[in-house]
């Protein structure tokens, strides 16, 4: 009953959000405007650059810029017009990210895992996929709805059974929401970004099969793994299998891009 009430309350809040469709055709609910998220993304990126050391090597930054530009050219015109910006952060962890508003960051540790430009395009394409599919907006909208749902259920429980029951709902309901709503939802986003990113890299002239090699490198570089049901990311082997299955269908787009003159030469 608690989960049903939480879901019903969250659904009520989401009903007041704007409804959009993701690039893969999935229905989405947004509580915030693109301009709001773009402003927050730009502010967060500026703060990161002041708080974290950026690489002094212009070669690495140029490498990332080259890949980003090639991928962004495959987006619709209005997305290409965003003020895309890149930064390379001095950090040994193999990580990359993209923020609303077109801000892309890559850790220096990623270059040890992404062995060539195609593999780097797989990582950055995935992160750009998050931005293109408005996943940040979608996630914060869902979290806001879930928090409101918990408050409603807690108030009802408190009115009937007292403050102790209200506190129990807040604690137990928060865990139920995390495992039952927010984490699975994040895995949907990760899978969707894989699909978008692999398609973007093929259209940009990067080999989509290299996405498989990239994630195999990522697995090899990872010491441990959280169970899928407790993670925001799909199981690595499931992810690799899905990327492998999509790659053959994307080869015609890749070959057409190369024959059409889209043959990125970004390095390293």
Automatic annotation (TrEMBL):
Listed Pfam families: Peptidase_M48
Name of the protein in its database record: Peptidase
Similarity comment: family membership: Belongs to the peptidase M48 family.
Keywords from the named record: Hydrolase, Metal-binding, Metalloprotease, Protease, Signal, Zinc
Annotated signal sequence range: 1-18
Cofactors: Zn(2+)
Domain Peptidase M48: 59-246
One Gene Ontology term from the biological process aspect of the record: proteolysis involved in protein catabolic process
Domain of life: Bacteria
GO cellular component: membrane
Cofactor note: Binds 1 zinc ion per subunit.
InterPro entries (UniProt xref): Mito/Outer_Membr_Metalloprot, Peptidase_M48
Organism (species): Pseudoxanthomonas broegbernensis
């Amino acid at each position: 009953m608690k989960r049903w009430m939480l879901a019903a309350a969250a659904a009520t809040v989401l009903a007041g959000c704007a409804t959009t469709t993701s690039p893969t055709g999935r229905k989405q609910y947004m509580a915030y405007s693109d301009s709001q998220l773009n402003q927050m993304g730009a502010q967060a990126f500026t703060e990161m650059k002041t708080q974290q050391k950026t690489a002094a090597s212009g070669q690495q930054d140029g490498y990332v810029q080259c890949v980003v530009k090639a991928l962004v050219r495959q987006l619709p015109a209005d997305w290409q017009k965003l003020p895309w910006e890149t930064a390379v952060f001095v950090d040994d962890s193999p990580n990359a990210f993209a923020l609303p508003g077109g801000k892309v960051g890559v850790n220096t540790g990623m270059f040890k895992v992404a062995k060539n430009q195609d593999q780097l395009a797989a990582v950055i394409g995935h992160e750009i996929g998050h931005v293109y599919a408005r996943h940040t907006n979608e996630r914060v909208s869902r979290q806001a709805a879930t928090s409101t749902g918990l408050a409603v259920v807690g108030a009802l429980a408190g009115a009937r059974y007292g403050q102790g029951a209200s506190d129990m709902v807040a604690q137990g309901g928060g865990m139920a929401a995390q495992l039952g709503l927010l984490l699975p939802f994040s895995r949907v986003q990760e899978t969707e970004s894989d699909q978008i990113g692999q398609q973007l890299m093929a259209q940009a002239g990067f080999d989509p099969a290299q996405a498989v090699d990239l994630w195999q490198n990522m697995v090899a570089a990872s010491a441990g793994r959280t169970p899928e049901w407790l993670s925001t990311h799909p199981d690595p082997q499931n992810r690799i299998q899905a990327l492998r299955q999509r790659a053959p269908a994307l080869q015609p787009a890749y070959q057409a891009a190369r024959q059409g003159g889209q043959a990125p030469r970004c390095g390293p």
